[in-house]
Amino acid sequence: YDDSALTWSPDSRTIAFASNRVSDADRHSYRSDIWLVPARGGKPKRLETPFGSKAGLAWSPNGKHIAYIGTDAGDDPWLPKNAYLWVAPVSRGKARCLSGALDRSVGDSTLGDVREGASGSPVWTGDSGRLIVTVSDTGSAHLYAVDVASAKWTPLTSDARDAIGL
User: Fold this and answer.
1) Distance CA 154, CA 35 (A)
2) What is the pLDDT of residues 138-157, one digit of tens each?
3) Which residues neighbour 149 within 8 Å (Cβ) at sequence distance 6 or greater?
């Protein structure tokens, strides 16, 4: 398997990672999942997330959620899609999209063919209540904060800029 986006849990007992483990993964490269494995080894557990790409995994400080940037593959994975901000519960439940109503792509897509992955992972606030991410809009990449409970978005920067490297 091709595993990526590895991140340690806050208590260092678990590793989360993205991996495509479907049969014929080379033909279905958009079907990655998030997996959890004990740091001491063991059988990986799949989180309930929609099919689609996954990058920038980030554990919440309280260890209850994993945020990630990804797409929902849907029926046609080759159609252009925005990258969305998702939050997946670690114990049980389905992942929830926080940016569906935003109508912007989460991450830095400015000069995307030159600096792939420059937007990094979402960053949690210390209380696990908000996430800070970059959002691409009209040739710029801005910093936004989103409240995890309400999915309310607040811009933190404005004007023409390219915020990278969270």
Assistant:
1) 30
2) 778 889 999 999 999 999 98
3) 129
